[in-house]
Design brief:
This protein is α/β, with parallel strands linked by helices and 408 residues long. The protein has 2 domains: 191 residues, FAD/NAD(P)-binding domain (3-Layer(bba) Sandwich), CATH 3.50.50; 147 residues, FAD/NAD(P)-binding domain. Helix content is 27%, strand content 26%. The protein is built from 10 helices and 23 strands. The strands form 6 sheets. Strands 1, 2, 3, 6, 7, 8, 9 and 20 form an 8-stranded mixed β-sheet that branches. A 5-stranded parallel β-sheet has the order 11-18-12-13-14, with helices on one face. Helix 1 packs across helix 9. The longest helix is centred in the C-terminal third of the chain and has 20 residues.
């Protein structure tokens, strides 16, 4: 079966079965096939479009066209991989079995879980309706990111609120990236004197990496951005343009009236994982795949591995993290299949390219424990044009032509 042909009635058992055809799944599939072209690999993914989501923030600022961030899923599927175009509804690791929404069941020798994270738009009262109004948007959806740019252009002053929820978040820097970009754009238009930019974040600081957090604190102070920490969005009244937050320290509701609201939705593990024996039972990572932080092997089912947003790893959920996790997982999976010890280890590396304006970026790179680990011979704690160019032009090419082909 070629890369461009989804499986209709293909084999129901695979030596390696991959769940998810996003960044994690495609990267692992490409690396497995590149290292062993004869390996039987199946991949489950329902979507016909593959997106490079890190550029969606720049879509929201009008710098990047939405179409530039997507390609047909068939174009990124590695050759020789059997594509099961369906959705995972249940995982039964004790039986080495996965159920699909088309009624089929697949079995496997080894399983790789790369199902990403679920955006919980439904977890905020009124949010779904409010997202249909012109004053509410989010760069966590490609359609909405385009509408964010329209809203930024239409904004004539008032209160603009940017939220960041409690719990696990994909690309944890995005909620403040779009805040900085919007603020800078409105300053260019001379709206700063009649505008208030509010960051209503559930956390306690801008970023957990001390060296980068200090820079971000200076930026918000210099711009006069009103940061209100421990604010977790609970409801939105789109007609009244009012957002209700739970103040996590005072344990009481507070409301903020807005003229523009950017929402980062709460996020949860995919239900197929959360409802399976693969999930962590409780704590900050409840519902996510319970894997060893170094080897990425499941702690209770040794023939199961997980990476990316779905994995219960104490580091940021980013594409940069996946790029470092994938070679570790593939190396250890090959060792497992060969019956030899797992020797590769992931150190928790992740990266947040924090856009602060068009042409300016602070690059945060870190490992487990929020340990700052810059890789470039420049001061990455400063707003830099070269780091902006890296994000805008270099990283997308590395993604499409390197990472998804198992080369980077």
């Amino acid at each position: 079966m070629t890369a461009s042909t989804p499986a209709a009635s293909a084999a129901t058992h695979h030596r390696v079965l991959i769940l998810g055809g996003g960044s994690a799944g495609i990267t692992v599939a490409a690396r497995l096939r590149r290292g062993d072209p004869g390996l039987d690999v199946g991949l489950v993914e329902p979507s016909d479009t593959h997106a490079y989501q890190p550029l969606w923030t720049l879509v929201g600022r009008g710098v990047v066209e939405p179409a530039a961030t997507t390609r047909p899923q068939s174009s990124v599927m590695p050759k020789g991989v059997t594509w099961h175009r369906a959705r995972v509804v249940a995982i039964e690791p004790s039986a080495n079995r996965v159920e699909l929404d088309d009624g089929r069941a697949l079995t496997y020798d080894s399983l790789v879980v790369g199902l990403g994270i679920r955006l919980g738009w439904d977890l905020v009262d009124g949010l779904a309706d409010a997202m249909r109004t012109p004053h509410v948007g989010s760069v966590y959806s490609l359609d909405s990111a385009s509408r964010v740019w329209q809203a930024l252009q239409a904004f004539q002053g008032g209160t603009a609120v940017f939220t960041n929820p409690l719990g696990q978040v994909r690309c944890g820097g995005a909620p403040q990236k779009i805040m900085y970009l919007a603020d800078a754009y409105w300053r260019e238009r001379g709206l700063s004197d009649r505008s208030e930019v509010v960051g209503a974040f559930a956390g306690t600081m801008m970023l957990g990496v001390p060296e980068i957090n200090a820079t971000l604190e200076r930026i918000v102070a210099a711009r006069g951005i009103d940061m209100r920490f421990r604010h977790d969005l609970r409801a939105v009244d789109g007609a009244a343009k009012r957002a209700t937050f739970r103040h996590l320290e005072r344990d009481e509701d507070v409301t903020i009236d807005y003229d523009f609201l950017h929402v980062t939705p709460p996020m949860r593990a995919p239900e197929s994982v959360a409802n399976s024996p693969l999930a962590v039972d409780e704590g900050a990572h409840a519902g996510f795949a319970d894997v060893d932080h170094a080897t990425l092997q499941h702690l209770r089912f040794p023939n199961v591995f997980a990476l990316g947003d779905v994995a219960a790893l104490p580091t940021a959920k980013t594409g940069a993290a996946i790029r470092k996790q994938a070679p570790v997982l593939v190396g250890n999976l090959r060792s497992f299949l060969a019956g030899t010890p797992l020797e590769k280890a992931y150190d928790g590396y992740s990266s947040c390219p924090l856009l602060t304006d068009v042409g300016k970026l602070v690059l945060a790179e870190f490992t487990y424990g929020n340990t700052y680990k810059p890789t470039f011979p420049v001061d990455q704690t400063k707003e830099r044009l070269d780091m902006y160019m890296l994000k805008r032009h270099v990283l997308p090419q590395m993604y499409w032509h390197g990472m998804l082909r198992g080369l980077a």
